[in-house]
Amino acid sequence: MQAEHHGYYLSFASRIFIYALAATSLNLILGYGGMISFGHAAFVGTGAYVSSILLSEGVASAWIGWPAAVAASSLAALAIGAVSLRTRGVYFIMITLAFAQMAFFLVNSMKAYGGDEGLSLRERASVGLGVDLGSDLAFYYAALAALAAGLYGLHRLAHSRFGRVIQAIRENEDRAEAIGFPVYRYKLACFVIAGAAGGLAGALLASHGKYVNPNVLHWTQSGTLMVMVILGGVGRLWGGVIGAAALLGLEDLIANHRVDWLAAVFPNYQQHASLGVGTVLLAIVLFAPQGIAGMLARRKHA
Amino acid sequence: MTKQLLAPALVWAVAGWLPLPVQAADKVKIGFISTLSGPSAALGVDIRDAFLLAVKMNGGKLGGLPAEVVVGDDQFKPDVGRQLAEKNIKLDKVNFLTGFVFSNIMLASVPVAFENKIIYVSPNAAPSPLAGKQCNPYFFAASWPNDAYHEAAGQYATTRGYQAVYMLAPNYQAGKDSLEGFKRFYKGTIAGEVYTQLGQLDYSAELAQVRAAKPEAVYIFLPGGMGVNFIKQFVAAGLSKDVQLITPGFSSDQDIIRAVGDPMLGTFDAAHWALDLDNAANRKFVAEFEKEYKRLPTVYASQGYDTALLIDSAVREVKGRIEDTEGVRKALKAAKFQSVRGSFRFNRNQYPIQNYYLRVVGKDSQGRLVNKTMGTIFKDRGDAYVQECPMK
Amino acid sequence: MSWILIVEQSLNGLQFGLMLFLLAAGLTLVFGIMDMINLAHGSLYMLGAFLAATLVQATGSFAAGVLLAIPATAVLGMLLEVSVLRTLYARDHLSQVLATFALILIFNEAVRIIWGPDMPLSVPAALSGPVQLLPGMVYPAYRLLIIGVGAAVAGALYLLVARTRIGMLVRAGASNREMALAMGVNIPRLFTLLFGVGAGLCAVAGALLGPLFAVQVGMGENILILAFVVIVIGGIGSIRGALVGSLLVGIVDTIGRAFLPLLFGIFFQPRVASAAGPAIASVLVYLLMALVLYIKPQGLFPARG
What we know:
heterotrimer, A: 302 residues, mainly alpha, two-stranded antiparallel sheet, B: alpha/beta, Rossmann fold, 2 domains, eight-stranded mixed β-sheet, six-stranded mixed β-sheet
């Protein structure tokens, strides 16, 4: 690892932290809440676009831009959740997917903010305090801080009364309802919290790459986040982090570090990374549904 | 939990302070990103093949230095193109970036080059913002300004006297530029102005509208797979009998001709280059390309080839000292090379000034469908945006 | 606004709707009877198109290529069912979603490795021209073929489900699986057969739409979403619902693409009108779904209850 590449890898690590935060926010509703939402990309995307639009209109401060992104994605989660959570099962999946696609098409048609060419930003958001987020190192710490806050939040939430109710609802919704919990309200609150965290991840993503484009809202992005959660361990605290690191790390490894004996057997394997990802995912679902975190936990308790 | 992350963070932080060794230029590294998959892959593949051919014909060198070309596929996606550009510039440390076919992907990716003071030489996309207000010293267009073919086609439609023309283009920057360009020189009635979705393949709805509007001619800007599908469906809908099809040069070039076939006969188009342009560089290029790849080159290939020759001339001018970015820029601007299009010179906004010809699809001496030059529409034309560019 | 335009756009909507039906029919049966969400259904559509393209090249005949692709895809579909999908029936919906999402990734890359990113498939020369339907009304011959085939398949499916013994078993399984099992229906074999039929239908759609769109990797994803929307609107497990749903979606989509830009063009600039039209058309389809679910939460023609 040469010194001249350190900038690239700091940037790569930041990217892992951001996706880890997004995956963790999905883990809250997917793993702890049992809600299969295919529309989570809409919240990440809303956060990304709101902060990008503010930056492109001259609002450089992250103290305004990022809370605005979180507020916007929370509102979106409230609106989408209010309607979707009235349905269950496959209907819920379809409605969340439909809303995400609507958001995608809407953003795609906004020619003023780039449309499908996307929006390029000149600078990252600024936090003041003598720190320049333009430096890869500073941004690394900012992303790390956001992820740490998110994980801590999830940890506290999972062990609180709220968290226990949500998990009870996941186990058996009818029973929780019979006991007297306002199930709909709990699910909606959970949905909004996850949406807020997703929005923060989106704002960070936009600043990190200094670029945002409608694909960040596409349903296949929701799928990618799901893959990360499952890979890492659905319903486990570190699931999002491990999953993001594993998926992005695997992709980078395949694309940028040629394994010669593999290339001899299978030329051009580097361009077919998703074959490996798909196979690993399928294997996990079929044989190790608890994900990597689950496997590690089992070994500890064995 | 935080402690587990502090350790690697400290390692990274320390690594950040290590000094960067200076790299002497012993070879020239080119980052080549283009659309190499999907329905419009033929375009990127042609540019890449011609570029690599030029390097090969030069003994694997550009300007005397061994050349290493890092090829990437943007898969027609702006975010993929941008990621590849970042990788090329930050990890592979390329000296030049080139290759993009589509303006939207290019516009998403070149800011990375500009920020890092890496020169981008465009073998195709040359949108109007970069010719005018947003002109950039690190951007060189080795092709033609986005509007140019369309202006020429519009001029032809006016000269020919078509009364009503229906226009179609995809809804992105280059699409908008194309129809603006056509309208700048077409003085007749516009029967319709429709923007389709980028990547759209089914034109049944649009063709029904065309039929209802009853124009004399249809002007389309639909590159790659989009054009192939439109023209096939245009013929299938029975419209080719009553309506003349006019296109910009690349929408009737060899890739489309190969895919569509005989229905293309008689289509008029405008371009800055044709297979039968009579100069030594072109004759050599066409012959070598056909020998190497067993197919005739498109206008895209001619541009890829010229891009390689342009970079070659610049590196030669600075005698291999490519770290001298300013010197390279001046050398590029001087453009001292034999282009396959004849003479080549840059305007002060680093977009070319050149001729544009009328071509028609016909058969050559071997009975193959090719574009034949019929006349000159514009001589020494620049572009409409240069006045807005502050560069000297 | 001439009547020719309206007729032509209606035919376009009908053509698209019928092809969508072929996909939706297989999907709704699998979901309705096996209670399995299969995201890889779009991959079968893609496989059908690639196989058709290959066989057309090999045999030199469009008809032969398409007809051979149907059983080929059906066999592959059945192999997939017996090997991987069978283990998912007992699992929860999330596992099914993830496993079949993984299959999409695998299939896309596998096709890319075997065939490359795309394959050429052209309308046969005999059908590449227009046909005169009425004086002044001309329509592409190939699209008429699609409408014809689509209608014929819809009719055949109806006969199969409503008039044959197998169809009766299918309907029984859709409305009450446990009861059907209790009555002695050989569920595993029925499922495999059903899956094969669904795959065959995908192949018909893929092969016929290939020349109009493009036979390329990833072609299944976009149409998959629409197919799911259709079965949600139509009612899960119901063939009739799938037909009504697909025709509705086909018409709304075409009207949106064809007429909304004209409407917007009155108020807005061409670029904005042209962008807004398709965007709103897509949104309209989802709004239609939301509306149907609000009025009839189980879809228009639910198979159960």
